[in-house]
Amino acid sequence: MPVITNIEDLRRLARRKVPKALFDYVDTGSYDELSYRANSAELKAIRFRQRILIDTGERKLSTTMLGEKVAMPVAIAPTGLAGLLYGDGEMVAARAAEDAGIRYCLSTMSICSIEDIRSATKGPFWFQLYVFRDRAFSEQILARAHAAGCTALFVTVDLPMRGQRHADLKNGLEVPPRLTPRNVFDIATKPAWAMSVLRGKRKTFGNIATFLHQKAQTGALAAGRWAQENYDPTLSWNDIAWMRKVWPGKLVLKGVLDAEDAKKAADHGVDAIVVSNHGGRQLDGAPATIVALPRIADAAGDRIEILFDGGVRSGQDVLKALALGARGCFIGRAHLYGLAAMGGAGVTKALSLIESELRLSMALTGVRDVAEVSRDILFDDYSARLRNV
Ligand code: FNR
Question: Residue 353 Cα, ligand 1 centroid: separation in angstroms?
Answer without folding.
Answer: 20
